[in-house]
User: Fold these one by one.
Assistant:
Number 1:
Amino acid sequence: MLHLTECPRDAMQGWPTFIPTADKIAYLNALLRVGFQTLDFGSFVSPKAIPQLADTAEVLDGLDLGQSGTHLLAIVANLRGAETAAQHPQIRYIGFPLSVSETFQQRNTNKSIAQAFDDVARMQELCARTGQEQVVYLSMGFGNPYGDPWSPGVLGEFTQKLDALGVSIVALSDTIGASTPATISPAFRELTAAFPNIRFGAHLHTTPDSWQEKVQAAYESGCRHFDGALGGYGGCPMAADQLTGNMPTERLLEFGVTVEEEPILNLEALTDALEWNQRIFAGHY
């Protein structure tokens, strides 16, 4: 069975106008009723950097988690954000973007890769104390526009360091839509073979005509955990002015049917969530 992380946070973060907090809560509650394994619901980052997510704590307070088996994931950019996320026990996963591109690490978190690894180590210690789990996203995981080094070997070097720190969940993140089957396949094939104790995920950005070949390449190379966003909205505003959308969750569900590994979801609730998705993203704000 495919394991899906639904990423409304990634869909909303670069949206040009502020989405009312009440509508965010209603949309996220609709997604919780669908039954995704994980919901990337918000981010504890500077509101100056990502104004859209300044209300994450308020949104969290409004979520109805009573009957949901979905685990919550919050993204942070530094130890301070992780400490804030750790104060909320209903959050299962704390996600941190560790870039394999020095240029993007500076651009995204104002730190070097070496400094970011220090943060990862301290966040791992924090999660050990709180019972939460850290998810490290290897951003620019399939190449970058800056000329910084990239190869499956570079990914392996980063993952080896993460493994030594005790990190057990690593997601290769496309960030700008640069991935192709030629970069996806060797990355997952080599990493899944070399680090059997780590759960690898794919956070792929895509254009409408290239989604299937990307998912197919990751799946055939051993990946079973995928991030998506309904409608394919979103992208990283810290990476480029023109955003390349997220992997549409609808396409992931289609793929799950073709390989007979479709996740078990509440389809009636999914219809309601899709209606909320269109209210929010189809030009109403």
Number 2:
Amino acid sequence: MLPPSPENSFQSTHADLLITSFQRLLGRPLAANPEALYRADAVVLSHDGAADPVLTYGNLTAQRLWGMGWDQLTKLPSRLTAEPAHRAQRDAMFAEMRSKGFIENYSGVRISATGQRFEIQNAIIWPLIDEDGIKRGEAATFTDWQML
């Protein structure tokens, strides 16, 4: 079940975009449906296409890892998922993804709401492009992380 919210329609539509854009770009499934995506063991996050992107999606695993509920996580500027010292590396990763179409095997240090640092490993980063070819944001998924 998706989180309780008046925006469940957006959440379901956005989850479909995550699933279909991943399949289209990488040629393999991310999840069977929005419910499976929300409850997946893998972390799945996305942000919008603003100049200072804000997170638009974080499944339950992402919420637990960052120590935030849906409402808090989806108001967070994406850059704040990393400490200032690690933001240049994060920016370089997004630049590489934009030039290549998507990237796999990304690793980087992130920080939770409680200040717990962790390293994500083997992350896949891809653009969220809808059926009309319009870019709606960017997303990441990973199953490997290590608390620091």
Number 3:
Amino acid sequence: MAPIDSPITAQELEILSTKAIAAKEAAYCPYSKFRVGACILTTSGEFVVGANVENAAYPVGTCAERVAFGTAVVAGHKSFKALAVATDIKPAASPCGMCRQYIREFTNGSFPVYMYDGEGSYKVMTMGELLPDSFGPGDLGI
């Protein structure tokens, strides 16, 4: 994992992590019991949270990352600085494959994803590391 020049301040990272960890409390996960919280920092300085929402028909559930990005986009945000994802396990879990492509829709390869474990420790990776050789709207001429 290459070092990342953080595009966010220490204070922004503190808020981002606190909100992602707290968002786990809102998770609706009666089937898996796997709580996930997420928080996005927009380029306008707003923090948008999400939590996973499961469904009895398993594929219908929605991951915390997609809840957060969907909420942000509906609120008019299209530009983001960082994402934090928090789980209760150790080591920290990374976004699933579907979420990686979803996140990539609104970010680029240098976008940082901070992944928090159940003890509050984190690792950070870029979208380029999480989804190498990816494509996004720019590759489709959008």
